[in-house]
Amino acid sequence: MARFNLDNKYKAIVIGGSAGSFQGITQILSSIPADFSLPIILCLHRLKHVRNGFVEALSIKSIKPVVEPYDKENIKRGKVYLAPANYHLSIELGNSIALSTEEMFNNSRPSIDITLETAAYNYRDKLIGILLSGANKDGALGMKRIKDRKGLTIIQDPEECMIDTMPTAARKITEIDYTLKVQEIIQFLKELDKLYK
User: Fold this and answer.
1) CB 71 within 8 A of CB 99
2) Which residue in 68, 135, 152, 155 could disulfide with 19, CB within 3.0 to 4.6 Å?
3) Residues near 52 by Cβ (< 8 Å), separated by ≥ 6?
4) Regarding beta strands 152-156 and 127-131, do their DSSP bridges make them parallel or antiparallel, or are they unpaired?
5) CA distances for 73 relative to 42, 59, 68, 99, 157, angstroms
6) Within 13 A of 77's CA, how many CA atoms are on the CB side?
7) From the candidates 21, 45, 88, 90, which is the catalytic residue?
8) How far is Cα 89 from Cα 43, in angstroms, rounded to an integer?
9) Of 115, 29, 109, 41, nearest to 74 (Cα)?
10) Is residue 69 within 8 Å of residue 89, measured between CB atoms?
11) Which residues have CB under 8 Å from 154's CB, separation 6+?
12) Catalytic annotation on 45?
């Protein structure tokens, strides 16, 4: 298994994914401890006209409740937030969430890049970004922003991905800290959580 260089400075985790990422997300959410300490913000490409069912499908698998946040909601430790369908999700100063219906970015709304970039701006070196399987390049620039601000970057191993375009794009433009299979991401999160107990 992978060896990780960890400390307990982190304040949030953002996970992005698109085509082929649902299985990985549900594996992660069903495996992390129920009292997992850090907030997890999910930005996943989803059908913009289907507002019901997705969060319920994740919640069935997840040990922790998954919620779609409202605009200006404060981010709390131990919570799992899912970007609502057809809304960009940004992280604002003061540790809150902002939702918007601005133009699509990378043909996506929510855009993973927007979520990762705004999180990187606010959390700097205290952010962990994780990018899973996906069919476009959304998220690559966001991962670079995290790295530029000294945060920690993880991509799903492209060899494991159903569609490897997204993590491969990120790896092409920045030096990724860890390239991991989903089970190794779970191991990473469990080891990280022990530092906060």
Assistant:
1) yes
2) 135
3) none
4) parallel
5) 15, 20, 10, 10, 33
6) 9
7) 45
8) 8
9) 41
10) yes
11) 128, 129, 130, 131, 176, 177, 178, 179, 180, 185, 188
12) yes
Asked about 35 being catalytic, the answer comes back as no
pLDDT per position as a tens digit, 133-171: 999 999 999 999 999 999 999 999 999 999 999 999 999
- Measure the CA angle with vertex 72, ends 122 and 79; round to 5°: 75
Residues in the chain: 197
| Secondary element (H or E) of residue 46 | none
pTM summary value:
0.95
Q: What is the DSSP string of 68-123?
A: PPPTTPBP-TT-EEEPPTT-EEEEETTTEEEEE-PPPBTTBSS-HHHHHHHHHHHH
Q: Please name the helix (run of DSSP H) or strand (run of DSSP E) that holds residue 15, with its range, or none.
A: strand 12-17
Which residues have a Cβ under 8 Å from the Cβ of 158 and sit 6 or more positions away? 164, 167, 168, 171, 179
pLDDT of residue 134: 95
Provide the pLDDT for residue 21.
95
Residue appearing with tokens 């070196």: 125
Q: What is the DSSP letter of 140?
A: H
Active site residue 133: no
Q: Tally Cβ neighbours within 10 Å of residue 104.
A: 14
Distance between CA 149 and CA 147 in Å, rounded? 5
Q: Catalytic: which of 18, 21, 62, 90?
A: 18
Burial grade of 182 (CB within 10 A; 0-12, 13-18, 19 or more): buried
